Each structure stands twice: as structure tokens, then as C-alpha cells.
UniProtKB/TrEMBL annotation:
<comment type="pathway">
    <text>Amino-acid biosynthesis; L-arginine biosynthesis; L-arginine from L-ornithine and carbamoyl phosphate: step 1/3.</text>
</comment>
<dbReference type="GO" id="GO:0005739">
    <property type="term" value="C:mitochondrion"/>
</dbReference>
<dbReference type="InterPro" id="IPR036901">
    <property type="entry name" value="Asp/Orn_carbamoylTrfase_sf"/>
</dbReference>
<dbReference type="Pfam" id="PF00185">
    <property type="entry name" value="OTCace"/>
</dbReference>
<dbReference type="GO" id="GO:0019240">
    <property type="term" value="P:citrulline biosynthetic process"/>
</dbReference>
<feature type="domain" description="Aspartate/ornithine carbamoyltransferase carbamoyl-P binding">
    <location>
        <begin position="44"/>
        <end position="186"/>
    </location>
</feature>
<dbReference type="GO" id="GO:0042450">
    <property type="term" value="P:L-arginine biosynthetic process via ornithine"/>
</dbReference>
<feature type="domain" description="Aspartate/ornithine carbamoyltransferase Asp/Orn-binding">
    <location>
        <begin position="211"/>
        <end position="363"/>
    </location>
</feature>
<keyword id="KW-0055">Arginine biosynthesis</keyword>
<keyword id="KW-0028">Amino-acid biosynthesis</keyword>
<comment type="similarity">
    <text>Belongs to the aspartate/ornithine carbamoyltransferase superfamily. OTCase family.</text>
</comment>
<dbReference type="GO" id="GO:0004585">
    <property type="term" value="F:ornithine carbamoyltransferase activity"/>
</dbReference>
<dbReference type="GO" id="GO:0016597">
    <property type="term" value="F:amino acid binding"/>
</dbReference>
<dbReference type="Pfam" id="PF02729">
    <property type="entry name" value="OTCace_N"/>
</dbReference>
<keyword id="KW-0808">Transferase</keyword>
<dbReference type="InterPro" id="IPR006132">
    <property type="entry name" value="Asp/Orn_carbamoyltranf_P-bd"/>
</dbReference>
<dbReference type="InterPro" id="IPR006130">
    <property type="entry name" value="Asp/Orn_carbamoylTrfase"/>
</dbReference>
Length: 370
């Protein structure tokens, strides 16, 4: 009897194991299936508005405005579509607006923004960017990176298995220019219609942006280069004044000229701030003093480039011209009279960083497409 029980027990266990543990996979299935591969399809990234079509750019602007209305004015209960999801916020440089905008936007969507500063991870120091991208992207759902050279963000995107968003590189600053365009749309809409409440979502930016003239006065930097590849797409004329020796990268110039030709917009480059400002609706500048060791040299090279009421008058800007600056600002770039005047949109512009970054996160991490 004991022998019979032992035999039955062994037989039953063997039978159960065969049913529970042993999968029924044929050799042909294993050879034709990619289910065990570590290769994944490449995600979509947002490295510059240069990579977007006009429709994609407009879609991001309208989505930014919709989300702003939803969160700030209608105050509807958010759906939290990114609950349980993590965004790696990898910043090799300090940030105020981009960091606050990114972390608050991710929180609104229900996700977690994991801040990783230069002292927190080995971003291209003791570990290659290739390795860092592959490792970090395997554990998160998206990456927002603020880097030095643009080649760094390109490498991160190339090797990442999740969407990468450019929070700033030395070549481009796409989320800033999205905020600029939303701010211009809001201003033009409300100035024209003069409503008693926020109604910018009731008009498409294609009705407010084309035909504007933006004048840039300052350095040939990442902000100007992003403006160059974005503004012609939406029908905005751009004139830029930079000191001699400060020039934009040739490939950016080529993109800007092609877009301007396609959309019929003007693209002007000069060393004279007054020439650039002529008939401008908007005057824009940015940090141009550089580091302390460069300040004396740059003060001399940028003499006459400080944005003032007098400069706007001498240059012949339109009577109702407005001013924008991505911040932080130094008095050598724009004086207090302009910066704190009713013409200045710098603080609405800063706030709109949140809504435009929210739209990018919503597009890439929720909808999976720009």
C-alpha cells in the first residue's frame, strides 16, 4: 500500500508539473517570434521644432492652451493618465522655469518627475552617454534632458528606448519657443477682442500669428536658432541683430531660409539693432553677458544692444510693440523701464513654460505622438 501511494504521488506530481511548468512552445514558434528580443521600436522624441511640421507645431500650441484652460480656468478634475509613470529629469545645468514647469506638469498628469542633477548621476562623466541613456531609459517612461552640446541630446535620443525631450542644448531650446508662441497668441487674441475673461482657446493660433514681425537683439544663441526654425513655419517674419562675429550655425540658417521661402516670410540678419527693430511688433532678447570672465569683453561687443524705450523709438518699432525675454535677465540686456513696463510679457511667457511642457508630455507619454 505504501508503495502504491508513493507511486501515485510521484505520478500526480509529475503530471501537475507537466501541466503548470512546461510551456507548449514549438521550435518553429521560437524561431519566428520576437517576443524574447531586447530590441524595441524607436520612440518619438522632441529635440527641436525644426523636426515638426507646421500642423504638428500648431497642434502643440492648441493643446497647450486647452490644458491651461482645463487646469487653470475650468479647474476640472484631472484624469491622471500617467499614474505610476516616471519621467527622468536629467539636468546638467541649473534651471528655475524649466524644472518647476516640468515637475508640476508631470504631477498634474499623475506621474513622478525624478530629478537627476549633475551631482546625482554620471551624465557623460564616468559613464558614457550611450550607457547612461540605455540604463536610465530601461527604468523610466520618458527623459527630459538639459545638456551642454546638442550632440549630447542627440546621443541620448538615439540610444533611449523612451521619448526624450530637449530641455535645452547649446543649439536649440524648443520648449521655450513653444511658450513664446502661446504667449504671442494669447496677447494678440485678447488685444483684438478685449474679452473680460480668458478666451484664447476659442481662436486658432493660425489666425493670430501670421504676419507678425519679431525682432531679435542679442547673441546668436540657442534661443535665436530655435526662433529661426519655428517662426517661419507659422508665418512670422524675423529680423535678427547680432554683433559682428556672432553668427548662427549654417545648418540652422539653411533650415530657416527654406521654411521662410516655403511660407513667404522675411528673414533678415544685421549687426544693427535699429535696423532689426524697424516696424517690429515684438522685440526679443536673451542673456548675452556670458560668464563673469567674459563680461568685460561682451559689454564692449554688445554696446548699443540693450533694449530700451529709446532704442525702440530710434529703430522705429511699431507704436504698440511688446517685449519678451526667456529669463533670467540682466540689466545690460534690457533696462528696468522696459522689463517692468506694460509692454513686457516676460512673466506670462514664463508661466506658459508649464502649459507647453505639459502639452509635450501629454503628446509623447500619453498619446504617444506629437
Amino acid at each position: 500500500m505504501a508503495s502504491l501511494i508513493k507511486s501515485l504521488s510521484k505520478s500526480t506530481s509529475s503530471s501537475l508539473l507537466s501541466r503548470i511548468v512546461t510551456p507548449s512552445i514549438s521550435h518553429s514558434t521560437m524561431s519566428s517570434s520576437n517576443s524574447f528580443s531586447t530590441q524595441t521600436s524607436k520612440p518619438q522624441h522632441f529635440l527641436s521644432t525644426a523636426d515638426l511640421t507646421k500642423d504638428q507645431l500648431y497642434n502643440l500650441l492648441t493643446r497647450s492652451i486647452e490644458l491651461k484652460v482645463e487646469a487653470k480656468y475650468n479647474v476640472s478634475t484631472p484624469t491622471r493618465p500617467l499614474t505610476g509613470k516616471t519621467l527622468a529629469v536629467m539636468f546638467s545645468k541649473r534651471s528655475t522655469r524649466t524644472r518647476v514647469a516640468t515637475e508640476s506638469a508631470m504631477a498634474y498628469l499623475g506621474g513622478h518627475a525624478m530629478f537627476l542633477g549633475a551631482q546625482d548621476i554620471q551624465l557623460g562623466v564616468n559613464e558614457s552617454l550611450l550607457d547612461t541613456s540605455r540604463v536610465v531609459s530601461s527604468m523610466v517612461d520618458g527623459i527630459m534632458a538639459r545638456v551642454g552640446g546638442h550632440d549630447e541630446i542627440v546621443t541620448l535620443a538615439k540610444e533611449s528606448s523612451v521619448p526624450v525631450i530637449n530641455a535645452l542644448s547649446d543649439k536649440y531650446h524648443p520648449t521655450q519657443i513653444l511658450a513664446d508662441l502661446v504667449t504671442l497668441h494669447e496677447y494678440r487674441h485678447h488685444k483684438t477682442l478685449n474679452p473680460t475673461e480668458y478666451t484664447a482657446h476659442q481662436q486658432h493660433p493660425s489666425e493670430t500669428l501670421p504676419g507678425l514681425k519679431v525682432a531679435w537683439v542679442g547673441d546668436a544663441n540657442n534661443i535665436l536658432q530655435e526662433l529661426m526654425v519655428a517662426l517661419p513655419k507659422v508665418g512670422i517674419h524675423l529680423s535678427a541683430a547680432c554683433p559682428k562675429g556672432y553668427e548662427c550655425q549654417q545648418d540652422v540658417l539653411d533650415i530657416a531660409k527654406a521654411e521662410a521661402k516655403k511660407e513667404g516670410t522675411q528673414l533678415i540678419f544685421t549687426t544693427s539693432p535699429e535696423e532689426a527693430i524697424k516696424d517690429a511688433d515684438v522685440i526679443v532678447t536673451d542673456t548675452c553677458m556670458g560668464q563673469e570672465e567674459e563680461k568685460a569683453k561682451r559689454l564692449a561687443e554688445f554696446a548699443g544692444y540693450q533694449v530700451t524705450m529709446d532704442l525702440a523709438k530710434r529703430g522705429g518699432a511699431k507704436p504698440d510693440w511688446i517685449f519678451m525675454h526667456c529669463l533670467p535677465r540682466k540689466p545690460e540686456e534690457v533696462d528696468d523701464e522696459v522689463f517692468y513696463s506694460d509692454r513686457s510679457l516676460v512673466f506670462p511667457e514664463a508661466e506658459n513654460r508649464k502649459w507647453t511642457i505639459l502639452a509635450v508630455l501629454d503628446s509623447l507619454l500619453v498619446k504617444k505622438s506629437l
